[in-house]
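Dear colleague,

Thank you for sharing your sequence with our group. We've completed the structure prediction you requested, and as agreed, I am returning the results in plain text so they can be pasted directly into your records. Please verify that the sequence below matches your submission; if there's any discrepancy, let me know and we will rerun it promptly.
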Amino acid sequence: MSVETEDRLAELEVKLSFADDALDALNRTVFRQQQQIDALQCGFRILRQQMQISQSAEQAEPNDEIPPHY
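Please find the predicted structure tokens below.
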């Protein structure tokens, strides 16, 4: 193998190593973002359920409403 070929091969190995590192970092970022999305969706579901419960409780107690003449 010639010196030029060895140099090109070494350069390709370095580039591949950097590409692997970048891909690993991107994978970790995507994984972390998916965890955050899942947590936000869970929190949103809980808030929606609490809001529905609160609205049903308000509708169930008409005695607490102020009459229109006040």
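Summary note from our side: The radius of gyration is 30 Å.

Kind regards,
the structure core
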